[in-house]
Amino acid sequence: MTTLMILIVIAFVVNGIDGYNTFDFSFESHTCQSPAHPLNPSTSEVIILSYDGGSISCDHVAFSVLNDPDLLTFELMINPLYHEDPDCSTVLEYRTSLIKKALKTYNCTNIAEDRFTTGMTRNSTFYVQIHEISPYKERARFKLKMLPMGATFSTEDAIAIISGATIGAILLLSLIGFGVCLFRKKSKK
């Protein structure tokens, strides 16, 4: 029994006990034809987005929310693991639209170091965009860890279904009871 417990503990340590689904994205391998990655705040997922100074075929990566009619809102937390740009060759932006003003902008003087959290709804899209401002980008690199969390769901449909089923069952039982009473009265006469 002790050996079994030790094997279970070793399995958790080897496989990881955090239980997160990890998705890795790189600006060097990402194309603009790639669809937006669906964010699912009801599961445990971690998105790792990185850039290591290579050539960029698409300047943005998009993340959209799964089409869940019960999802109201959730938070998307972006935690920079590292951000280095000694040659001031790139600008990193967080956006909700590619044509609107950026939510947050980072460059060589304003390095992404602090966590950033933004609210999202079921119809929203989040973009991480990189701009090349110098051809000397070989030493520019960053890695971001993104976590969807804190989802709130609409429970109106579930409450309506449960309430409707309860009221329907009470009415059905009342009608059956009334029918039984009428049938007994008629059979006694």
TrEMBL record:
The entry's keywords: Membrane, Signal, Transmembrane, Transmembrane helix
Segments traversing the membrane: 158-183
Signal peptide start-end: 1-19
Protein's organism: Crassostrea virginica (Eastern oyster)
Protein name: Uncharacterized protein LOC111109210
